[in-house]
Amino acid sequence: MEENRSTFKLSGREKAGLIWHYLRPCWGHFAAALLCACLSMALNALTPQIIRITVDSILGSEEAKLPALVLRVLPLETLRQEPVTALWWAAGAVMVTALLRGLCSFGQRAQLSRGSEAYVKGLRDDLYRRIQYLPFAWHKQHPTGDIIQRCTSDVDVIRTFVCNQLVEVVRTVFLIILYLWIMFRMNVKLSLIALAFIPIVGLSSGVFYRKISSRFKTADEAEGEVTACAQENLTAVRVVRAFGREKYEEDKFQAKSERYAGLWIHLGKLLSVYWASGTLLTCLQVMVIILAGIHESVAGAMTLGAFVAFVSYNESLAWPVRSLGRVLSDMSKAGVSMDRVGYILRSPEEQEQPDDVPFPGGDIVFDHVTFGYEGQPVLKDVSFTIREGETFAVLGGTGSGKSTLVHLLDRLYDVPEGSGRITIGGVDLRHIRRSDLRRHIGLVLQEPFLFSQTIGENIRAVRPDAPEDAMRRAAAIACVDEAVTSFPEGYDTIVGERGVTLSGGQKQRVAIARMLMQQAPVMIFDDSLSAVDAETDEKIRTALRRSTGKATVLLISHRVTTLMQADRILVLDGGRVAELGTHAQLVEKPGIYRDIYHIQMQSADRALLEEGGSEHGGH
Ligand SMILES: Nc1ncnc2c1ncn2[C@@H]1O[C@H](COP(=O)(O)OP(=O)(O)OP(=O)(O)O)[C@@H](O)[C@H]1O
């Protein structure tokens, strides 16, 4: 069964594999960060011991149970005589441990930030690389916004989980084990009471976060809606102004923004209740420990210093235990993000077969091709031949399948087995290496895309090292050289969001120049002269005829004047071949081509007459 992007799930093992795959190259940083975190914990555990020794063995008279090395350095007897000096020593020791903890904390953060950047870079680069090689059909099926969100927000959730939460879990587990070990050595009865509260606090926090995670998800989705609303508005700013929709857009945004704010206020309330009840529970535990501790101290089972130290350890346990519950429930959020990212990483790329052959050249033959999208037939038993070197035109109504012919020729989609075949030079297209095929087929689309670079860089996109005069020759053929040189920056003018806005016709012409630079033996113009006026269209076609030489040209257009000089013309009607022949043959016989020809010629004549009339009137 085909994987679905909403239901795709990685197993626990696969998720661990995904984490480890990107962690492996930078595991040293994570290990160093963990070491620093554990050292910091251990140093933290020293402070209550300093207090215990000060109270029991310096201010009091208990025997200090310390390692021989420490006893040799610590002038215990002298300190007992001078309590003020003793307090300075204690304060100094606390300061030193705090300083060392600061160093560890610095090391932990520095190592974590290096590790997490390396981790996330590896994952992000892999995602981007994979997206470059996923089939066109995959891109068509997946909304761009969804892909971007997977590559940004989801990657960020995984980064936070691996780089912060995972380290936090290890640190907390280490802390719990270390502190409980010390506490058990100090007093078993009190330790058992403290231990009894840990699962209650941890579990209640885990259950709470699991319960509200769906609300977090709703808030995330609401945030997505706010962003999408703003994005759509900014993209369609011209339409908004033209139709005076400013107020409507403002209200729409405000409604979404209000919902988003409301969700967070509600979440804030829930979190406040949780934190307040959690604090109450923790206080209850501390109270029980204090009462039991006093009882133990009065009974002589515990010294005063040990009691103070024990209470301090116990308090230090409360916060990490509460956060552990939250981290564990956040794991499910990270798990969802891993599924979403994993879906892209597991989607199959366009694969070249080992026995695929290079582009053979020759006649292009559509042999009984039937093709459709999502079960809806578009091309129905289409057969025709484009002879090598000829200019072949395709005319057809909207949705008749003209662009689909181009998709198939470029192998953006493959003709399914048993639904006919397309051959070039007798070789089935499905056995021609895609990369090679696309290098040999130049393509200009109706709505060409220009990169946010200079015009020169756009034209030289396929041959960045091509000489200046070759680029200008291509631009001249596409009738765009004059327009470009009239810009103050000429070919260095930046286009796209950061630069000038080219008109639709200028964009099409730059795209034609870019395609000409490819010097491909097959050139396809998919309605790519629709945005230029008839006169420029004629000029470009004349220049092209002279320059394309032996290239096979496939012209797709709604304009008969664009097509009539082609060697042969194919008329598509509802996905079927309706007519095929030269212009002269097609205007001779009744049919779609002749009708369209007459309609377009009449309106052209009318336009000419009107133009003449108005000029006449002007004199
Ligand atoms: N990727 C796709 N997924 C689903 N349906 C598609 C896809 N591309 C095209 N179609 C549908 O296939 C039909 C033919 O589309 P195609 O773009 O080939 O027509 P066309 O003749 O080039 O039309 P136009 O002249 O308007 O560009 C249309 O009904 C269109 O909605």
TrEMBL record:
<feature type="transmembrane region" description="Helical">
    <location>
        <begin position="86"/>
        <end position="104"/>
    </location>
</feature>
<dbReference type="Pfam" id="PF00005">
    <property type="entry name" value="ABC_tran"/>
</dbReference>
<keyword id="KW-0472">Membrane</keyword>
<dbReference type="GO" id="GO:0015421">
    <property type="term" value="F:ABC-type oligopeptide transporter activity"/>
</dbReference>
<keyword id="KW-1003">Cell membrane</keyword>
<dbReference type="InterPro" id="IPR017871">
    <property type="entry name" value="ABC_transporter-like_CS"/>
</dbReference>
<feature type="transmembrane region" description="Helical">
    <location>
        <begin position="190"/>
        <end position="209"/>
    </location>
</feature>
<feature type="transmembrane region" description="Helical">
    <location>
        <begin position="166"/>
        <end position="184"/>
    </location>
</feature>
<feature type="transmembrane region" description="Helical">
    <location>
        <begin position="21"/>
        <end position="43"/>
    </location>
</feature>
<feature type="domain" description="ABC transporter">
    <location>
        <begin position="364"/>
        <end position="599"/>
    </location>
</feature>
<dbReference type="InterPro" id="IPR036640">
    <property type="entry name" value="ABC1_TM_sf"/>
</dbReference>
<dbReference type="GO" id="GO:0005886">
    <property type="term" value="C:plasma membrane"/>
</dbReference>
<dbReference type="InterPro" id="IPR003593">
    <property type="entry name" value="AAA+_ATPase"/>
</dbReference>
<keyword id="KW-0813">Transport</keyword>
<feature type="transmembrane region" description="Helical">
    <location>
        <begin position="273"/>
        <end position="294"/>
    </location>
</feature>
<dbReference type="GO" id="GO:0016887">
    <property type="term" value="F:ATP hydrolysis activity"/>
</dbReference>
<feature type="domain" description="ABC transmembrane type-1">
    <location>
        <begin position="31"/>
        <end position="333"/>
    </location>
</feature>
<dbReference type="InterPro" id="IPR039421">
    <property type="entry name" value="Type_1_exporter"/>
</dbReference>
<protein>
    <submittedName>
        <fullName>ABC transporter permease</fullName>
    </submittedName>
</protein>
<dbReference type="InterPro" id="IPR027417">
    <property type="entry name" value="P-loop_NTPase"/>
</dbReference>
<dbReference type="Pfam" id="PF00664">
    <property type="entry name" value="ABC_membrane"/>
</dbReference>
<dbReference type="GO" id="GO:0005524">
    <property type="term" value="F:ATP binding"/>
</dbReference>
<keyword id="KW-0067">ATP-binding</keyword>
<keyword id="KW-1133">Transmembrane helix</keyword>
<dbReference type="InterPro" id="IPR003439">
    <property type="entry name" value="ABC_transporter-like_ATP-bd"/>
</dbReference>
<keyword id="KW-0812">Transmembrane</keyword>
<dbReference type="InterPro" id="IPR011527">
    <property type="entry name" value="ABC1_TM_dom"/>
</dbReference>
<keyword id="KW-0547">Nucleotide-binding</keyword>
